[in-house]
């Protein structure tokens, strides 16, 4: 049984990579990430989000994974998480609401716009590309502040390959990859004179 599950997961990972590549979301070259570090692979989430068919297929996988945990609300951080929350909620059932957590002026995120999470309501948090986990953690904090009970984190891409966890919550990524990054002073692409793209 374990082997079958592993094979199914591997098939799902391959399918997710294929969908992302078809959407033009997997870029190869020489990139400077938001952290300032350099690497040769960049996931451009907006190439994914502009393709409804691809977004739908990946959000269906997230919904299928978390369906047994019976989430009652799906919340994503602005901006990409808005679309993902909506699409994931659609696949979970017509009674499931989709909200978003927006940035607060003083830092962090909050649930606004009149969205109401009932005390103890089961909330699934979704996001597009996990890099440092900051947006997801801020969204989880916003859900807790609104009275909700986070039950899991669903991701399209986990760039930390499972290295980032959120307090023992169930976590699922359509695609988990380990994207190596380097200090600019140690970057072989810089040494080779490969043109740099700042993301």
Please, could you describe this protein's structure?
With 199 residues, this protein is an alpha/beta fold. It has a single domain, classed as Rossmann fold, CATH 3.40.50.2020. The chain is built from six helices and nine strands; from the N terminus they run αββααβαβββαββαβ. The protein has helices at 2-22, 45-49, 52-66, 80-92, 134-145, 188-191, and strands at residues 26-32, 38-43, 73-77, 97-103, 109-111, 122-130, 149-158, 170-176, 197-198. It has a six-stranded mixed beta sheet with strand order 5-4-3-6-7-8, sandwiched between helices. Strands 2-1-9 form a three-stranded mixed beta sheet. Strand 3 (73-77), helix 4 (80-92) and strand 4 (97-103) form a beta-alpha-beta unit. The longest helix is centred in the first third of the chain and has 21 residues, at 2-22. The radius of gyration is 17 Å and the shape is globular. It starts with a helix and ends with a strand. 36% of the residues are buried. The model has no long low-confidence stretch (mean pLDDT 92).
State the CATH class. Answer: Alpha Beta
Sheet/helix structural class: alpha/beta
Order of helices and strands: HEEHHEHEEEHEEHE
Strand content: 25-35%
Total number of helices: 6
Report helical residue fraction. 25-40%
**Strand ordering within the main sheet:** 5-4-3-6-7-8
What is the mean predicted local confidence, pLDDT? 92
The coarse silhouette is globular
Straight-line N-to-C gap = 42 Å
Taking the sheet with the most strands, its summary is: 6 strands, mixed
